[in-house]
Amino acid sequence: MDSLHSTMNQHVKGKHLSFEERVIIQLRLKDGYSLRAIARELNCSPSTISYEVKRGTVKLYHGKVKKYKATQGHDAYKAHRKNCGRKSDFLRKAQFMRYVHKHFFKDGWSLDVCSNRATAVGEFASSDVVCTKTLYNYVDQGLLGIYNYDLPEKLKRNTKLHRIRKNKKKLGRSIEERPKEINKRNEFGHWECDLVLGHKSKDDEVLLTLSERMSREFLILRIPDKTSVSVMQAFKELQRQYSEHWNDIFKTITTDNGSEFADLSNLEKVSNTLVYYAHPYTSCDKGTVERHNGLIRRFIPKGEAIANYSLQDIINIETWCNSLPRKILAYHTPDEIFERELDLIYQAA
C-alpha cells in the first residue's frame, strides 16, 4: 500500500498517466471506488479517469463481463501517441516542393513568392501548398535542397536608427514639400531616382535607375558617366519615348542631393513633372529604388565594371526585376500593374 501511495504522490496534474497509475486505477475499481474517489487520490480530473477506463476496458467471458485492465489502457495510450502531433507535409506535397525548387533557382523567386504566387494565379489549391514559415523551416532542416547561404536577404538586415541631417545643399524642392498622399502609394506616376556605380574608374559606365512607387516598375538606363549632363540626356530620351503621355506617367520624381542630379529640376521648366530632393544621407527617403538597386547587385557585384556587361545583360536584369511577383502587389508582378495603369492612361487620352 505504501508503494502505491508513493507512486500516486509522484503524479503531476496535467501530465499523462503512467503505467503504475493505471495499475492503481485497476485496483481501486476492483475495490469498488468511484471514479471521483480515484481522481482525488491520483490528483487529476474525473474526466481523465473516465476516459482512461473507457480506453482500457476489455470484454471477458464472451462479452458478458467488462473489466478495466491496466495493460490494455497502456497499450491504447502508446498506440495513440504514435499518431499524435502535427505531421510534415513535405512528402505529401512533393509536387509543390518541386515547384518551389524550380522557381527559386531558375527565376530567383523568394520563398514567400513561391508559397503565395502559386495560389494567387491558381496553379495550386491552398490545400496543396505550405506557408512561407514552413518553407523556411524546411530550409533550416535541410529538406528543400535550399540553404541559408542561398537566401540573400535572410541574414542581411540594417538596424541603424533613422536620422534626418540638416540639408547642406539646396538643389531644388525639398521632400518635405512633397504631398503626404504620395506616401500612401495609391496614385500612379510618382517615381524615385538613383545611380548605380560599377568600378570606381572615371571611364566606367553608370546605371540610372528609376522605380515607380505604386507599381514598383523598375527602369534601368545605361549612361556613359555620372555627370548631370548624362543624366539629363537620359531623361530627354525618356521624354521622347513617352511623348504626350509624359506628364501622366511621370508626375513627380524624388532623388538625392548628388551633383549628378543638380539639373534634374530643369524638368519642371519643360513639363508638369515636379522634382523633390531627399534629405542628405537619408536613403530611406527613396527606399523603393534603393531596394531595387540591391536586386541589381545580385547580378553586378559592387566594384565590378558596368562596361563588362552588355546591353542585353542590363535588359535581362530589368526584365527579371519587373517580372518578379511581389507580396506587396498581392503576388502580381510590377509589369502587370504598370501595363494596367498605362492602358488606363492611353484610354483616357
From TrEMBL:
It comes from the Bacteria. The keyword Cell cycle does not apply. GO terms for cellular component: cytosol. One of its GO terms (molecular function) is nucleic acid binding. Keywords: DNA recombination. Residues 175-342 form the Integrase catalytic domain. InterPro entries: Homeodomain-like_sf, Integrase_cat-core, IS30-like_HTH, RNaseH-like_sf, RNaseH_sf, Transposase-Integrase, Transposase_IS30-like. The keyword Repressor does not apply. PROSITE patterns: INTEGRASE. GO terms for biological process: DNA integration; DNA recombination; transposition. This is IS30 family transposase ISLjo1. It comes from Lactobacillus johnsonii.
